[in-house]
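pipeline: protein-struct stage 2 | run 1193 | Endonuclease G, mitochondrial
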Amino acid sequence: MSAYDPDFLDGFLLPLPSFAPHLDENIVRDDDLTEHYVADYVHYSLVMNGAPERRSAVYVALNVDQNKHKQTSRSNRWRIDSRIGDELQLDNAYYRNNDWDRGHMARRTTAAWGDNAIDAQRASNETFYYTNACLQHANLNQDEWLGLEDWVYGLNLDKDGKISSFSGPFYAEYDRSVHPSGHALALVPAGFFKIVCFVNQANKLEVRAFVMFQDEKALADKSGRRKYNNQTYQTTVTYIEELTGLQFEPEVYHANPMSHCDSSTHTRGPNSVNGEPVLTPELIEVAKPTDIQNTSGPRQTVKDDVVDIFISAAMVNPKGSDKGNEWIGLINLGADAIDLTGWCLSDNQDNAVAVGQVTLKPGESRVVNQLGKIRLANTGDVIKLHDDQKNRIDWVNYTEKMVKSGSPVLFLSPRDTLELDV
């Protein structure tokens, strides 16, 4: 069994990404590493950032053959990689007695494949190196984030079950930090990226790129676009390059269906996809496999940065019976009155309910308490708002830890939220 193989996908060469100059100067280099900077493991390879305040993987490149997956046991025995050096890795002290988990970059169950059970178990065990872990908040939906390769496979888009992926953290200007007693300070990533590559059934390379934020305040968008923590967004490879300082081969971002900028001007701004205007670079929330945007088929029109109606709160776990006591709150934070006739709310299973015939004036709110088939799961769910043309106006998600009995889940910051009349 070998490390990451750039020839893994039939007919396509996917070499490891290179580095922008500001990133290159922090790459860990040692004679014991492949080409003096790549650490190889079973099915995956990684490169380390040696900046004293980071000491995390720059990226992890993984090959997956989903036809050879085997059931394996979880080792949970985390180890220091002696090739990198103790001082360049975040050991267990950084994950003890706080809100930060050892987040796998190469997912254990995804890497657990081989010709037999012994090989698969070895591959599973090889994911438990601190070099393969990053500070990841306990609230982050790891099942959703780490399972993106499975989502692509489940859509039956690939021709042979083989996938190559690139994952890693990204940082911002004002990151949070962890400072264990007796250890050097380490910055917490503002979020994570994942790029999934496969060959489709027409023998063409396809790519899906994703980011998830765990500190949206550290990544204030100059255009004022809203981002939510613990939410997976499908996006462009170029956007990931801007966040990380990585440089991928042109074939990788050309095979991605998401739009980054107007190709004639190479600047950010309005663009169009299938004749519909989009704000670029595209950031579209995904919460299940069918949400993923593809190269063919209808594209979802997203207007959550254009129309100022927001899902402000939801009573997910009311005291007493859920039926008839759950509700979803909407608010108009724009300058114009907006007619909501024909609009609907839906959950992640696409159960829908009409908002009703109502016009919200600026600053007005409305509570929808006749939710029909929608059941707000206490374990976490997604709530979507669409207008009468089926354009998506807003999207929120919540986790089990956000749900409190008798208290609404709030989706807007206190300074934006007006009191709801319920």
